[in-house]
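A protein record pairs a chain with a discrete description of its three-dimensional fold. The shape at a given residue is found from the number at the same position. Here is what such a record looks like in full:
>
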Amino acid sequence: MTVPPEYHLYYLQVPPELARSLGDFALDPSIPLPVESRSGKVPDLTELSWEQIVAAMLKIMAWERDHRDFGYYRDFILAVRPQIYQELSSTGIVKAQSKDFRLAEEVFLALEGLDPTNPRTQLNLALLYDDQAEFLSQKDRSVEAEACLSQAQKRFSQAMTATPPLPDAFFYAGFFHLKQKNLERARGLFDAFFELGRDESKINAARKALADYERRDNFDRLFKEAYDFILLGQEEKGIERIENFLADNPSVWNAWFLLGWAHRRLSHWSEALSAFEKALEREGDPVDLYNEMAICNMELGQLKEAQRLLEKALRRDGENTKILSNLGVLALRSGNRELARGFFESVLEYDPEDPLAERWLKELAHNGTELEG
């Protein structure tokens, strides 16, 4: 809780003749009344409204919990504005939704000062800090985002200690921990919510969120296993894992790419080409896919189609050394050694240490050498 730098209050003494009762609350002239002045001048008591005084007292509720007259000001506010909790809660939520985090925080902290036992205020603060953390992360302000996440977790924990329990605290805390990829904690919180909650729409939302996360988690595991198997030279096992992945999630383009890569490593050219085409249909990276499809077409003897694909890739990325190198290989396959030499020399202009281009140029330097792509 950081006091805003612009925070500054003046205190005005109430003349005895202005003492009065507000319901069961008696105004004490010996206790000065706070007021905020943005002009830098001491305000005139005769020009003040009760609303201005209450607004200043709310700042004390938010930022000065150890103020010597804290209890008196809290009673004053509740006497003047008995419905203030409902009014301010709505204001805080609106401010949070509009990303006015500082003002929303002040509103909720003021409500906490008025009634520290209300779990709904703790929950609203938790949701506020969670939203603010996401906003800061998007702005690459990771240190501040981490501080907000810590505050959010603290407030969720406080909200869940209420008696009687507040079901919504467990509901939203479950989503919070799901976002932090803490599945076991989220599952425990949702289980508590299922026992406490009566809102069928929220119960269904929580069950769906758990199922979706578990399905994605299983997909991620299968995907990683497939990738690892292929890297280790166990392409058949990798293909089995990625096909299991695709059976439930056929729209993921890079899964089709991974399947094509595994088949290509096994020289299954037709199967690889089919997988790469599916990846392209699902809006995968066109440059890499054109390149991979061209390699498959070369191996299948479809040199014109391979050239068409490589030229399309080159138009998108004219300095891509993989594309230039494969155009060189294609030129060799077509019997055009000078054109191939030009492509390999272009590769070395962009990457002087490219080993493949160096090897092909050395081979080309030996007249009469038969070159295979």
